[in-house]
Amino acid sequence: MDRSRDIECEFGVPFPGRILPREQWTRTGLRVAGGPFDWERVFGRAAPRVVDLGCGNGRFLIASALARPHCDHLGIDLVQVAVDYAAQRANRRGLPNVRFVVGDAGEWMCDRLGADSVDEVHVYHPQPYYEPDASARRLLTPPFLERAWTVVRRGGLLVLQTDNRAYWQYLLRAAGKYFEPDVLPGPWPDAPLGRTRREIQARQKGLVVWRMQARRRDLPLDVFVPQPDFDANRPRFRRTKGRSR
User: Do the domain assignments include residue 236?
Assistant: First the structure.
C-alpha cells in the first residue's frame, strides 16, 4: 500500500508522524476554564509533564509526544489558527498524550501552572520585539524566569532557542541565575533539520540558531539580573553573517 500521502512536509522537511486512518484519530484541542490546570484529570494519569510556550503549529510537541508516549504534553499559543492547526495534526496522528490550548504564555506560567508541577518548559524563538518602546512585552523577564524555576520540578529542564544574538546573550545571563545552561554546539540530535517551523526557516535563510537545555538549580544564584531592555538589533528576519546552525 502506498503510504506516501500520509506524510506531510514543511519547507521540504517531513512533519513528524503519519496520518492514521480516521477511526484512530484523537481530539487534542482543549478549552479550559480559569484556575490551575488539572493534568491528571485532562490526561487521566500521572506522568512526566512537558510544556511548550508559544507552540505554534505543534511540530516540536507532536514529535516529542510521538517519541515519548510516557510523557504528557501541553502546547500553549496566543494564535487560534496556529493552535487549531497543531491540534488537527495531532488528532490525525492519534496522539492521546498531547493537548493544545489558546492562551497567553505569561498568564499560564503565573496563574495556571502550579508550583513544582512540570518537568520541562520549552520556549522556542520568543518574540524579541525590535522597537525600543516594545521591549517591555518580551516574555523572558527575571520574574518569568523566577516563576519558571518555581513551576519546574527539581532536576527539570528549561529549554530555550533563539536566532536573535542579543536575546541569546541576555538569556545566557538571565536564565543562568535559576538554571544551569548546557549550550548545544549544533542542531538538535532528534531533529537535525529543525525542531520548529521557525528554526527550519531560519536555517534555510542562513541564520545562526542558538540552543540551550538548562537544568533547574536547587537554589538560585545570588546575582542581579536586569530587565530585557537590550537592543534586539535586527529589524527584519534576514540573513546574518556566520555559519548556519
Answer: no
| Mean predicted confidence (pLDDT) in 171-177 | 96
* CATH number of the domain enclosing 205: 3.40.50.150
Q: Which whole number is the average pLDDT over 169-182?
A: 96
- Domain interval for residue 75: 4-216
- E strand or H helix at 233: none
Distance CA 245, CA 238 (A): 15
Does residue 9 carry a pLDDT above 60? yes
pTM, two decimals, is: 0.92
Nearest to 52 by CA among 155, 121, 145, 144: 121
- Tell me how many degrees the CA angle 63-69-75 measures, rounded to the nearest 5: 50
Is residue 94 included in any domain, yes or no? yes
Burial class of residue 73, CB neighbours in 10 A (0-12, 13-18, 19+): buried
pLDDT beyond 50 at 127: yes
Query: What are the residues facing 179 on neighbouring strands?
Result: 216
Q: Are 101 and 92 in contact (CB under 8 A)?
A: no
